[in-house]
Amino acid sequence: MFDPIAQTISDQHLNLDYSVQLTVRRLDQIHPNISGNKFFKLKYNFIEAQRLGFKKILTFGGAYSNHIAATAYAAQFFGFESMGIIRGEELANKTYNPTLKLAQQMGMDLKFVSRENYKLKQDPEFNQQLQVEYPDSYIIPEGGTNGLAIQGCQEILNPHDYTQYDVICCAVGTGGTIAGIIESSAPKQHILGFSALKGDFLKQDIQQWTQRTNWSLTDAYCCGGYAKTTPELLCFIENIEQQFQLPLEHIYTGKMFYGVFDLISKHYFAENTRILLIHSGGLQGRLQKISINQK
């Protein structure tokens, strides 16, 4: 269902003045709208929704959610209706940002709920109520993270990677992508996640999906929290784009690259370490105009 729209994924090697090898897996090149990790997360969920005969896709996300944008496009492409439960009822009467505009243009109905009610998104009773209210809807969790998403994300790596790379780095939002990568990695590889959110609660979420221990997570480069930025981060992204012709956004991939380059400069990685960076897409986030340390 998804594979026919996929484009060739390339690996981009970056020449550095440090004694490590750095390669970027350009998942952002998969598709203009269903790009990066979202392609892998949505793949088996949409196959399952089609198999079960659902007519509508219902999912959750914040105002800047890559998942919301990708799900809206995929739903329209494959003939589903779609609805997004959006965190923040105060946004209903504001001008939509580029992510929400794109979702709306793709035919997604947007339902804005209070931040308090949004926290119920994983509550069984709340989801049962949604299923009653929208009986023809296949429900995908926030960020697309569920067992089927992790199954898809295991396909990000291939057998050649097991001997080619020592460390694999990726941005982390809900934990599904890194869980899939951990599950498909070789035991001797280390998977290093860069959280886009502040706090260590994501560690517990990831541990629900994998029993492996060859991974670690840092929030040292989240710049204060989700969708928050600093002048240093924005300047870094601009420099990387100019130096390597590599597009980044400041919510996920930019922070991950920022963290990796900082660690390299501090000699965190052993000499000649072979590092693979997963570019997880989400480039519609480049259109967002987010102020420094926006809440």
From TrEMBL:
<dbReference type="InterPro" id="IPR027278">
    <property type="entry name" value="ACCD_DCysDesulf"/>
</dbReference>
<dbReference type="InterPro" id="IPR036052">
    <property type="entry name" value="TrpB-like_PALP_sf"/>
</dbReference>
<feature type="domain" description="Tryptophan synthase beta chain-like PALP">
    <location>
        <begin position="28"/>
        <end position="281"/>
    </location>
</feature>
<dbReference type="InterPro" id="IPR001926">
    <property type="entry name" value="TrpB-like_PALP"/>
</dbReference>
<dbReference type="GO" id="GO:0019148">
    <property type="term" value="F:D-cysteine desulfhydrase activity"/>
</dbReference>
<dbReference type="Pfam" id="PF00291">
    <property type="entry name" value="PALP"/>
</dbReference>
<feature type="modified residue" description="N6-(pyridoxal phosphate)lysine">
    <location>
        <position position="38"/>
    </location>
</feature>
<feature type="active site" description="Nucleophile">
    <location>
        <position position="65"/>
    </location>
</feature>
<keyword id="KW-0663">Pyridoxal phosphate</keyword>
<protein>
    <submittedName>
        <fullName>Pyridoxal-phosphate dependent enzyme</fullName>
    </submittedName>
</protein>
<comment type="similarity">
    <text>Belongs to the ACC deaminase/D-cysteine desulfhydrase family.</text>
</comment>
